[in-house]
Amino acid sequence: MANADAVPDVAPMPRHQHLIVTVYGLYARNQDGTFAVADLIQLLGDLGVESAGVRSSVSRLKKRGVLVSLKRGGSAAYKLSPELEDVFTAGDERIFAPRRAKKDDAWLLASFSVPEAQRHLRHKLRTILTRIGCGQVSPGLWIAPGNLAHEVEQLLRRAGLMDYVDLFKATHLTEGHIHEKVGQWWDLPSLEALYTDFMEQHEPVLQRWLQHEQGDSESPELLKQAFADYVPMVTQWRRLPYMDPGLPQEYLPDNWHGLAAQELFTRLHELLGPKAQRYALSVVGAN
Questions:
Q1: 282 and 192 co-located in one domain
Q2: Residues 192 and 280 in one domain
Q3: How many helices (H) and strands (E) does the chain have?
Q4: 93 lies in a domain?
Q5: Which helix (H) or strand (E) holds 136?
Q6: Do 193 and 130 share a structural domain?
Q7: Is the model's pTM score more than 0.90?
Q8: Count of the separate structural domains present in the chain
Q9: d(Cα 266, Cα 200) in Å, to the nearest integer?
């Protein structure tokens, strides 16, 4: 499952395209990465997207290299680009099995220098580092928890930028200033607002489903509702673990909503994920 905004050379996308990427990341990989167009139109229709919007969004994703077209059983179909499989695999871990760094863990430092004549590469490099969750220490020095080293290197190599970058693991020695510095390197107030919004939107969903759990929560109607609740929830969530790359809890503000939001996401994922998958695969199997 990938954060589409973290895919190199993929521009920020409208909501319909985000939903399509989520659906592919969650369910198409169980179908060799492929969905017939009819399957996709039905699934996105359950999320309130009209067929014309689906076709238009799929066309844009194809142009961006996220999807490729093919025929399956004589019908039009689209497949996730095989070149992005490692990005989606890394996204699975970042989104569904996040690791919060410990206070004593090493930091990853990314130092780069790009010639003035290639300033477009400088912008591309900064965009990738931002999307993967790095904070900016200075214009040419970026920082992240050390456990992101492999993921950062993988994306920079994919983009052909490693010739301009040196990666280090380091220890911060001026411990008394780290709280202040973390607040400078990452935009924590904006991230806090996103976490708060996530909780406001999806806490009522959890409460509603906890009531369903007392009755028949496996009826076809409720499985379909689980899909309709789960996919937008994952779509909203999946960029947050990239903006908050698992900073040590000790360096975060008091009453940080990110911890409660992570717990909410985990509960909804465990409660709705299996039901949503059963519904999605029933649709795919019916066509």
A1: yes
A2: yes
A3: 11, 7
A4: no
A5: strand 135-138
A6: no
A7: no
A8: 3
A9: 16
- Whether residue 94 is contained in a domain is answered as no
Flag residues of the chain having pLDDT under 50.
6-14, 287
Taking Cα atoms as reference points, which of 62, 37, 63 lies closest to residue 51?
37
Token look-up 């695969």 returns 281
Is residue 176 in some structural domain?
no
Q: Is the four-CA dihedral 32, 33, 36, 41 of positive or negative sign?
A: positive
CA nearest to 48, candidates 227, 275, 272, 281? 227
240, 188 contact by CB (below 8 A): no
What is the span of the domain harbouring residue 112?
107-170
CATH of the domain at 144: 3.30.70
| Distance, CA of 199 to CA of 268 (rounded, Å) | 11
Q: How far apart are the first and last CA of the chain?
A: 24
In tens, the pLDDT along 229-276 reads: 999 999 999 999 988 889 999 999 888 999 999 999 999 999 999 999
Cβ atoms of 97 and 90 closer than 8 Å? no
Q: Pick from 172, 115, 107: which is nearest to 133 by CA?
A: 107
DSSP codes joined into one string, 30-64: GGTTEEEHHHHHHHHHTTT--HHHHHHHHHHHHHT
